What we know:
Blueprint: E1 12-16, H1 21-35, E2 40-47, H2 54-67, E3 72-76, H3 86-105, E4 109-111, H4 116-128, H5 133-136, E5 142-145, E6 148-151, H6 159-169, H7 185-192, H8 197-225, E7 226-228, E8 234-237, H9 238-243, H10 246-261, H11 269-279, E9 288-290, E10 293-298, E11 301-306, E12 322-325, E13 329-335, E14 341-344, H12 346-352, E15 374-378, E16 381-385, E17 391-393, E18 399-405, H13 424-427
Parallel strand pairs: 1-2, 1-4, 2-3, 4-6
Antiparallel strand pairs: 5-6, 7-8, 8-11, 9-10, 10-11, 12-13, 13-18, 14-15, 15-16, 17-18
Amino acid sequence: MTALGPFERRPRLAVAVSGGPDSLALCLLADRWARARGGAIVGLIVDHGLRPESAGEARQVAAWLSARRIPQHILSWRGAKPRAGIQAAARAARYDLLCAWCRAAGVLHLLTAHHRDDQAETVALRQARGSGADGLAGMAPVRELAGLRLLRPLLEVPKAALIALLEAAGQPWLEDPSNLAAGFARARLRRDADLDVVHLGRLASESAAHRAALDRAVAAWLAPHGRIFATGFVVLEQREFAAAPIAIARRALQQTLAAVGGKVYPPRQARLSPLLDALRDDRGARARTLGGCRILRRGGKLLVCREAGAIDHVIEPQAGVWHEWDGRFVVRVTGEVAGMQVRALGNDGWRQRARLPQPAMSPEVPAAVGPSLPALWRGDRLLAVAEPGSIVCCSTGPATIEARYRPPQPLAGAPFAAGRQQDASLRGEETFASGRGSLMLT
C-alpha cells in the first residue's frame, strides 16, 4: 500500500467485494491496514442480478463483513441486461456503480483484488493477441479515474496466499461459476492452460518499467509544451512536437486524443502512425481527424479539439442531477427542464448563439471548438451554451446549465508502474518505481 500512496492521515478506502476468496482476503487486509492508521474501509458489494442466487449471495457477503464490523453497501445493477457481450457489460456496470458510490461518498481510493495469477492471465491473453510492450505490462497498480484512484495492491501476491489467509482466519467464501464458464476466454485459459506465472510476471514487470519510464518522460514533455483547456481542447507546440523523440510524440498524441475525444483507450497504432507522421511534417496544413477529434495547425501550434459532427449524445436532463455527456463533460440543469435537451451546440447553434442574452463566449474558445460544447435546447431553439467554468441562465425561463470538463483519462496521469516492479523471490530484494503523483494540466 505504501507504494500506491499518498493517502490521507486517516485513510478512507472502498473495497470491491464479490465474495470470492481474492476480494474477501483483500477486504480483511485493507481493514487491518486502515484501522492501524486510524482510518476505515467500506465494502462495496455489486449484485449484477444475472443469476437467481445473486441477491442472496450479496446478503451473505454483507453478513460476513458485518460480523467483522466492516461497513458495507450492496449496489444493484438494475434495468435490462444485454444478450451479447454480457461479461463486458457487467464489468462496465460494476465499475460505474462502484465509482459513482465513491464519488458521492467522497472516497478517493477504490481497491480491487486482482492478484498475480490474474496478471499472468492478462499478459498471456494479450501476448496471444500480439500486443506490444504497453499491453504486455498487464494491469496497472494505480489507475486514475475522474474523482478517485483505482488501486490494485495485490498484483504480486499469488492466489494461493490469499486462500491461505482466509483459511487461517476461518473465513468462508463464495465461488463464482462464471469463472469456469467455457464461453469466456479467460475462463478457458484457466481451465486449459498451464501458465508460467513467474515468467509472465517477469515479462509484465519489465514491460511496466519501460512503460512507466515513458509515462514520466511524456509528462515532463507535456508540462512545458502542452496546454489543456476547460472547454475540452488541447494545444501542443508544433515545433517541439516535431522535434520530440518519436516514442514521446506518439504517446503524447495518444493521450491527447483520448482526453479530447472522451475515450478510455486511444486509437489503434495502425491509424495513429500515419497521423503522427503527417503532424510532425511542417509542410502539411490541412485539418485531420482521428478518434473523434479534429487536429488543426494554428500559428505554430497544433489545436486538438472534439469533432462536433461526431457527437450524437443527447440528454433529457433531470433537474439538479449531474449527467455525463459525450464522455468528456458532466452537465447539470437546474430549474424548469420540461421539454429541454442537452446536445452539442453544433454549427447551427454556433450561429444562433449571438442572439442569446448570456455574456459573450470567452475569447480563448476557438471557433473550431465552440460547436462541440454542450448546449441547452428546446426543439430547434438554442437556449444556452454551457461554457465550462460558468453557470449560464436560460433565456426563456428560470433554468440554469453548468458544465465541467472531466475526461475519463488525464492528459498525463500517474506512471503506469506505481507498485513493486520485481518479485522479491527473483531479485532477492524489493524495488519500487516512483509513481506517487500525477499531472493534470489545466
